[in-house]
Structures are given as C-alpha cells and as structure tokens.
C-alpha cells in the first residue's frame, strides 16, 4: 500500500471539500437550531458525505463505463472543474459556485439542512466526486481501495470534529481568518487540478510527454 498515495488522496479531499472554509455556511444554516440539534446536523451531514464518497469510490468506474467516458477525458474535465472551484475560493466566491441564492432561501426554509445542502452539494460536490473517481480509476487493487475507504472515513471524522467545534473556531479565527484559510485551500486545489489535467493530456496525447 502506497502511503504517499493515500496521504495525497486524503489531503486532496481536505483541500477540495474544505470543511474549515464551510464553517461560516454551517453556522448560518444552523443558526436557528439548538446546540443539540446543531451537533446532530453535523453528525448526519458528515455521515452522508462518507456514504456518498464510498459509493463513488466503489461504483465510480462503472458509471464511467455506462456512459462510455474515458478516464483521460474525465480526468481533464474533473481537473477543469477543480480549477474552477479553486478560482472561486481564491476570489472568496465559493458559496456562489456551489449553491445559488434561490437554493439558499429553500435551505433556510427547511428544518433539516444536514443532507441538503450541507452534504450535497456543498461538501460532496462535483469536485470531490471527480477526485474520488479519478483516484479510484488509477488504483483498483484491493489494498489501495481499502486504504482510500479508510481515508474517506478519516476525513468524515475530521470534518465532524471541525463542525462540532464550529462556534469556537469561528470566534477564534473570525471571518478574516477563515477567508485566509479558504484562499490557501484554493491555491492547493488549483495545483491539484493542474496536475490532474496534465496527467489526462499526457494519456490522450502521448507525444506531449
């Protein structure tokens, strides 16, 4: 089992989903809830993310085969999407990319926001799903699949712990601190996206290598 691969996969999930950057959204969506309800929302949201990503890890390749999509083509498309989200993070407009104002109003009217919009599409969005499918398509051996599954579970625990302490973290970092972290994550995401696109182009056009 390649430890560097698993570390890269885990850090990629952290950068793409960026649970710290989502803290302001989490706090605002759960502002009407009691502390107990807020903790339950955090638990359900992160459990949903883990389930979505595990299903993607196992069945992602089957979905590509169903639509006759090649891995290099999907890799390039996923890389472009990751860069698009990264640009929005660097510009401080992440929320506008992942959900629009109408969806915000609909979410505010619902009692439970754990699954929609928190888990999907805010956390387990197109960028995270694309990343999981690309990694899984490159490493189909049993050990790597189990390792990536463990990484997804570990990310779920980490994200849940961050959400669990959301009010404290938000007070300590403040809006400015969270904005800085979001932009750093955006820069890391852009680097990941460029690497993914480069790998796809090299496979489609071997002469570029």
TrEMBL record:
The record's Gene Ontology cellular component field reads:
plasma membrane
Q: Where in the cell is it found?
A: Cell membrane
Q: Which UniProt keywords apply?
A: Cell membrane, Membrane, Transmembrane, Transmembrane helix
Which InterPro entries does the record cross-reference, listed alphabetically?
Answer: Multi_antbiot-R_MarC (IPR002771)
Domain of life, per the record? Bacteria
Annotated membrane topology is: Multi-pass membrane protein
Transmembrane residue ranges? 6-27, 47-67, 73-92, 113-136, 142-163, 184-205
Coiled-coil positions: none
The family assignment reads: Belongs to the UPF0056 (MarC) family.
PANTHER family linked: UPF0056 MEMBRANE PROTEIN YHCE
This one is known as: UPF0056 membrane protein
**Organism, scientific name:** Ferrimonas aestuarii
């Amino acid at each position: 089992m390649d430890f560097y691969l698993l570390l890269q996969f885990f850090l990629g999930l952290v950068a793409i989903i960026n649970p710290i950057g989502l803290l302001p959204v989490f706090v605002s969506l759960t502002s009407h809830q009691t502390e107990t309800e807020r903790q339950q929302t955090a638990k359900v949201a992160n459990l949903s993310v883990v389930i979505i990503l595990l299903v993607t890890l196992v069945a992602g390749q089957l979905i590509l085969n169903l639509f006759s999509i090649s891995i290099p083509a999907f890799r390039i498309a996923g890389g472009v999407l990751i860069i698009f989200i990264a640009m929005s993070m660097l510009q401080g407009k992440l929320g506008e990319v992942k959900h629009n104002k109408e969806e915000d109003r609909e979410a505010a009217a619902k009692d439970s926001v754990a699954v929609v919009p928190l888990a999907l599409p805010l956390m387990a969005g197109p960028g995270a799903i694309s990343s999981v499918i690309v990694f899984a398509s490159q490493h189909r051996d049993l050990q790597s699949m189990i390792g990536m599954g463990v990484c997804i579970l570990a990310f779920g625990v980490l994200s849940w712990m961050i959400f669990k302490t959301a009010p404290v973290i938000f007070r300590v970092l403040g809006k400015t601190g969270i904005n800085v972290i979001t932009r750093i994550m955006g820069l890391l995401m852009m680097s990941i996206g460029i690497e993914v696109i480069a790998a796809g182009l090299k496979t489609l056009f071997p002469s570029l290598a």
